[in-house]
Amino acid sequence: PCAPAGMGAVPEPCPQAPLAVLSKVELRVSCKHLLDRDTLNKSDPCVLLLMQSQGQWMEVDRSEVIKSNLNPVFAKIFTVDYYFEEVQKLRFEVYDSHGHAGVGTHDDDFLGGMECTVGQIVAQKRVTKPLFLKYGKFAGKSTITIISEEISGNNGYVELAFRAKKLDDKDLFSKSDPFLEIYRVDDDRSEQLVYRTEVVKNNLSPVWEPFKVSLNSLCSCEEKRKLRGVVWDYDSRGKHDFIGEFFTTFEEMQKAMGENKVQWDCMNPKYKIKKRNYKNSGVVVLLDLKIHRVYSFLDYIMGGCQIHFTVAIDFTASNGDPRNSCSLHYINPYQPNEYLKALVAVGEICQDYDSDKKFSALGFGARIPPKYEVSHDFAINFNPDNDECEGIQGVVESYQSCLPKIQLYGPTNVAPIITKVARVAANEERTKEASQYFILLILTDGVVTDMADTREAIVRASYLPMSIIIVGVGNADFTDMQILDGDDGVLRSPKGEPVLRDIVQFVPFREFKNVSGAA
């Protein structure tokens, strides 16, 4: 979130940097087998959606009440902002409503609740969970189902090619010089200019250059939104003459795909009133329309793409002897060290997007048993055939049990681990399925020794479905690390080849360790 400060200055922590809203997500809710609280007829259920903010549950919205129904499908659509980098906790509560008093929040009206995260819902697209009463008791066989759908905000752009025929001639000594404007008509009837073509000189049947506009700008991604086209005769003093106008929608424009064309009469309302046999002031033809879809992060996640998470931990001697309380690897029974804090902060986000919840955990820069040779990519569970641990907790346990068995050494080489994950990502890419994306979290206390090899490895990896997060632990000088991030300019390999995508994010942990969890 923070741009690196000048090389000499210490950057100010900026936990308040606003998170980027990736998308808005729509949630639809239904329940099955609700408890029957009413003696004479069935419960009248209503759902409340709560979100956790600063540890407090706040009601965000509520559904309509459905009369006398134990298997309700609610019409209400809940909309939530989706932030990838935050664990967004949701709570759904179902109540039996009593018309006149609205939704009572008394225990005897409570039909059950369920908690989950936005990440879990978008990763699974459809989540069904049991409802619980107070104190963790099951609410009978009651279940709640949440179905999520992304509101496609920026899902692409469209390429349009217009021409006109037989436009009215507005000039005395030559033909009109026409240009076309397209406006979007907003809900408040105001008009937003979407595009203005170039002027075609001295031509009553102009062909304008094709142009591209985003669907968001053309019609706010709503196919039925009204659009207005206006044709003008250009005047160098800015007093353009109105030739005519037409109205359409993006839905109608789409008929111009393939071989078809769509055309509109270009009308001048004044002439229509004055002239008895007025037909039009020319026609405007849409020759071609191409839609280019741009897939968002959520399109991939909701299409079933899983995130595979690997963590790599720096076990070089500069961390200090783990038995000494000054060491960055010191295991304090009361307080996790910075390595563990950074691991949990990133791992908690990624785990929602990985259905098997198994994480690869590697170490580098230590001498390892049995021969105590230096390794730059060993499994911290010491199982060379399977470096995966069960969940974040499994990584934490492997880390704690491996520390006494290894000897911290050096140097700090990270290229071998980047290359190792890149090999797996390359195999995945060959399937052309886009079903796995790889995130490598490198936790290190200092400057990388194999800088040239690391830059080469990152440039190679930038062609693959992977990203690298480097967290600098402790108080070393991380100036070199900022170079890998590429925020100061494009990262290049030693031979000068630039990265294809900016896949590295470097974060000094000291800037974040004292801010709130969400930040």
Tell me what the structure shows.
- The protein is of the alpha+beta class and 519 residues long.
- The protein has three domains: 129 residues, C2 domain (Immunoglobulin-like, Sandwich); 136 residues, C2 domain (Immunoglobulin-like); 207 residues, Rossmann fold, CATH 3.40.50.
- It is built from ten helices and 26 strands.
- The strands form six sheets. Strands 17, 18, 21, 22, 24, 25 and 26 form a seven-stranded mixed β-sheet that branches.
- A hairpin with a 5-residue loop joins strand 10 and strand 11.
- The longest helix has 16 residues.
The main β sheet shows up as: 7 strands, mixed
Using the 3D structure, state the CATH architecture of the largest domain.
3-Layer(aba) Sandwich
Shape: flat
Question: What is the total number of structural domains?
Answer: 3
Domain VWFA: 308-507
Organism: Cephalopterus ornatus (Amazonian umbrellabird)
Protein name: CPNE7 protein
GO molecular function, one term: calcium-dependent phospholipid binding
Give the SSE map:
Elements: E1 23-32, E2 45-53, E3 56-62, E4 73-82, E5 89-96, E6 110-117, H1 118-124, E7 126-132, E8 138-151, E9 157-165, E10 178-185, E11 191-196, E12 211-214, H2 215-219, E13 226-233, E14 241-249, H3 250-253, E15 262-265, H4 269-274, E16 283-292, H5 297-302, E17 306-314, H6 338-350, E18 358-364, E19 366-368, E20 373-375, E21 378-379, E22 388-390, H7 391-402, E23 407-408, H8 415-430, E24 436-444, H9 451-461, E25 466-472, H10 479-485, E26 504-508
Helix pairs in contact: 8-9
